[in-house]
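Input (3-phosphoshikimate 1-carboxyvinyltransferase):
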Amino acid sequence: MIEISALQSPINNQLSITGSKSESNRLLLLNQLFENVLTLENISNSEDSQLMQKALANKTDLIDIHHAGTAMRFLTAYFSIQDGRKVTLTGSDRMKQRPIKILVDALNELGAEISYQENEGYPPLSIVGKKLTKETITIPSNISSQYITALCLIGTKLENGLTINLDGKIISVPYIQMTIQLLNKVGIKATFEGNTIQVPFTKRIEAQIVQVESDWSSASYYYSLIALSQNSEVKISTYFEDSLQGDSALQNIYAENFGVISTFDNGILSLKNDANFQPKQKIELNLINTPDIAQTIAATCVGLKVNCILTGLETLKIKETDRLVALKNELEKLGAIIRITDDSLAIEGYQDFSETPTFETYNDHRMAMCMAPLAQKYAIRINNEMVVEKSYPTFWEDWKQLGFEIKSI
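Output:
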């Protein structure tokens, strides 16, 4: 357990943040499919990306990806097309509770040979790699974008390409767009129009250098920190105004609702308080396209004692933990009155509280990091703080660099 205390002076510092986990894992798999012709710069140093790299290099028949959900989904698709190779793909106890049936069904419909070793619809999986020839698949569109991305990535190596028809209203559109744009960036002419994705068979791509932009989800904690501070500024790199990442919506969300101004200068993103901002009493946001920043926004609202209604959160229930329940449990320790449904979280007022809150993290990296900015308002404690290694291993070192005192209890 650690205890964090508020800074006594305004923040003014600069940090460098590791590359996006989402971009890194897509590019790592793509590079493997095309015989490593890409030189990838600023790859994420997250545990998830390290596990992805180890799994792709693993020549045995047992692949354990621990807590890495993205790796589980991408590698299920990857190993399904490794003709003649048999593997068992497994993970942590929590991973064995995270559904994967929709992706497995889609791959099996395309001709894959994947079966369940324990519980129907959940890892671990037995995969026999085959040559897939079917070229069209229809899947529900209200599913994790990682399922869709997994299909897009291997579609580049199916001899007839792959057409994916998405049935219904699409959630997490920016993550699908990121995948298509990364494919385009390396020379693969994939398209995403309406509810149809088309990925052509691509024999080879040109050798090239690809720079991974830093992670916007990780930037969210600094947006929150500035929102909870006064007369402060943090500079973080490497970020671009024309980002491929959906979480770059942070710029508008935090400007309009919390008075945090974003400016760019040669890859450096500066965040500072807007001196003329008028605080809001209630905030309403639909986060269906940006679910990974919902926890940060909820914690920011509690730190400012602002009411809110956050919707579009249906995917939060199947992450590392049920994030809606976890947020309710932990933010109520600061007196927040919270109501949750299957796809929303509402903060409806505040009560007094007296004890120093100790936040549980539920083996969820984002639960630890979204609570950290609250140290600007209260002395706080966080259990199992090293869970941040999943996506941002240097998080606590960076916060010490900002001037926070962090001590073990």
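The radius of gyration is 21 Å.
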